[in-house]
Amino acid sequence: MPTSFEKRRTAFGESLRELRENAGFETGKDFARAVSWNAPKVSKIENGRQTASTDDLETWLSAVAAAPDVAEKMRAMLAGVHDAYVTWKETVRAGHRARQEESVDREARARIIRAVEVGVVPGLLQTPEYARHTLLAHAELHGGGQDITEAVRARMRRQQVLFEPGRTIELLMTESALRHPIAPREVMLGQIHRLIAAIGTPDVRIGILPNDVRLPYPLMHGWWIVDEIVQVETVTAELTVDDPDELAVYNRLTDTLWGSAAEGDAARDILAAAAVRA
Hints:
Elements: H1 4-22, H2 28-35, H3 39-46, H4 54-63, H5 68-84, E1 85-87, H6 88-91, H7 97-109, E2 112-117, H8 128-142, H9 148-158, E3 168-174, H10 176-179, H11 185-198, E4 204-209, E5 223-226, E6 229-233, E7 237-241, H12 244-258, H13 264-277
Parallel strand pairs: 2-3, 3-4
Antiparallel strand pairs: 1-7, 2-5, 5-6, 6-7
Helix pairs in contact: 1-5, 2-3, 7-9, 8-9, 11-13
């Protein structure tokens, strides 16, 4: 099934093809010659296999002499495509604080927050020291390490939602996040004790997927469900999913995973054992 991003990019490409044909360019090759592009680029953009840049769109609009209202519609469509798939390099070019502040605002308005994390402790439960190490690791790969201290402070502000009533908050993580630590021993010990203390927070459900439990589906990445959108982090980018059918799939899988999770005292036992090993 195509993703939200793929659907948006395909629809955008089809709209560009209609503009090209209505302007009298019978083939993509004709259009490519007119704008000094290679023909495969036109084909890939029209068939949703390549994302057009803002400059690409402006070149296209100029070549087809698009009416002002049509041009604005196409710019809005492309913005939607770009919003659905943003590379980390783009996101953190100016630093990590802004991305954390986006989460502060989004989660402060949210009624439902459901997180599934595979290799890291959920941000809403991280200690400042653990958060610093995760953000530094991210900056080492993608850049944007100039404001880590401010980014950590913003991540800590996100945690205020844990103590505000009227929300559904479910935070599920794998035991492997503790078995493959991102931070030094003393930091991991502090993080483990923070998790132990957090279990039992009113209106906050916390669970751990044990290493030896049989899972109903292979976990290839984590995700966050915030009201009606899903955010998925890959190594290179962050995807925003708002398709209702996809949202339903993520919610269904999240429900299923909770059936395999350790909660309460069982989760505390896993954390206590992790502290001994740390």
